[in-house]
C-alpha cells in the first residue's frame, strides 16, 4: 500500500508540474514584456531630457517646410552600410509621415567614419553647390550604388559617371575639377566640426530639435515616437 501511495503521489506531482509549467512561462514572458516596456520608456525619457544641441543649418541640404517647428538632422557617411539601410528603410517613412506633411524639416550633414569616403561627401557638396534640387537625387543614388566598405570604390571617375547618369543637369567638368582640386574639402571639414561639437562618433546619428535620438538606429517606431514628442513640446 505504501508503494502504491508513493506512486500516486509522484504522478500527482508530475501532473501538477505539467500544469504549472505553462503558467510559469506565461508569467515570465509577461514580466519580460513589462520590463522591456519600462526600459524603452526610461530610454525615451533620457532622450527627451538630454540638453539640446544648437545647430547652424544655414547652407545645409534641407527638405521640408521652412515653418516646420521640428528639425531632424542626420549625420551620415556615404560608405556606411548602416546609413544605406537607414536611408532606404527608415528615411522614406520619416519623409512620408513628417516631411511631406510640413511638420518636420530634414537636413543631412556629413560625418566621415569609413576610410576613403571623403570624396563622396565632396561630390555631393559640389552637386548641391551647383544645383540644390539635384542634391537629393545624387545623395540617394550614392547610397543605392554603395559597394563593400572595404573596397576603394569612391573615385573621381565613379562619382562623375554617377552624376552623368542621374543628374545630367550638373556641369560634369566643374564636378570633376572640384574633386581633383578638393575645393569642397573645407565644406566637409565644416560638417565634421559640427559633428564633433555635437558629440557624434558614429553614423547614422539623428537629432530631433537638437536632441540626439539614442534608440535603435533602425527602429522607426521609436524614432517616430521621439519626433511626435518633440512636436507636442513645440505646440
From TrEMBL:
Gene3D superfamilies: Glutaredoxin. It comes from the Bacteria. The keyword Transcription does not apply. Belongs to the thioredoxin family. DsbA subfamily. PROSITE patterns: THIOREDOXIN_2. It comes from Paenibacillus apiarius. This is DsbA family protein. Residues 46-232 form the Thioredoxin domain. The chain crosses the membrane at residues 16-35. Keywords: Disulfide bond, Membrane, Oxidoreductase, Redox-active center, Signal, Transmembrane, Transmembrane helix. It holds the Pfam family Thioredoxin_4.
Amino acid at each position: 500500500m505504501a508503494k502504491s501511495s508513493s506512486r500516486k503521489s509522484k504522478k500527482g506531482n508530475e501532473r501538477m508540474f505539467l500544469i504549472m509549467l505553462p503558467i510559469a512561462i506565461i508569467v515570465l514572458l509577461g514580466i519580460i514584456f513589462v520590463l522591456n516596456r519600462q526600459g524603452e520608456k526610461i530610454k525615451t525619457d533620457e532622450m527627451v531630457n538630454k540638453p539640446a544641441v544648437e545647430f547652424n543649418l544655414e547652407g545645409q541640404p534641407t527638405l521640408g517646410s521652412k515653418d516646420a517647428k521640428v528639425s531632424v538632422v542626420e549625420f551620415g557617411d556615404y560608405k556606411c552600410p548602416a546609413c544605406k539601410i537607414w536611408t532606404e528603410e527608415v528615411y522614406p517613412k520619416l519623409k512620408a509621415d513628417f516631411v511631406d506633411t510640413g511638420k518636420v524639416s530634414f537636413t543631412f550633414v556629413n560625418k566621415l567614419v569609413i576610410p576613403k569616403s571623403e570624396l563622396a561627401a565632396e561630390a555631393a557638396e559640389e552637386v548641391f553647390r551647383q544645383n540644390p534640387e539635384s542634391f537629393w537625387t545624387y545623395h540617394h543614388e550614392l547610397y543605392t550604388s554603395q559597394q563593400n566598405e572595404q573596397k576603394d570604390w569612391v573615385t573621381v571617375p565613379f562619382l562623375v559617371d554617377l552624376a552623368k547618369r542621374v543628374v545630367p543637369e550638373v556641369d560634369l567638368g566643374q564636378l570633376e575639377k572640384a574633386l581633383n582640386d578638393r575645393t569642397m574639402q573645407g565644406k566637409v571639414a565644416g560638417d565634421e566640426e559640427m559633428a564633433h561639437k555635437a558629440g557624434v562618433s558614429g553614423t547614422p546619428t539623428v537629432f530631433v530639435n537638437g536632441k540626439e535620438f539614442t534608440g535603435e538606429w533602425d527602429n522607426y517606431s521609436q524614432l517616430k515616437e521621439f519626433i511626435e514628442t518633440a512636436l507636442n513640446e513645440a505646440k
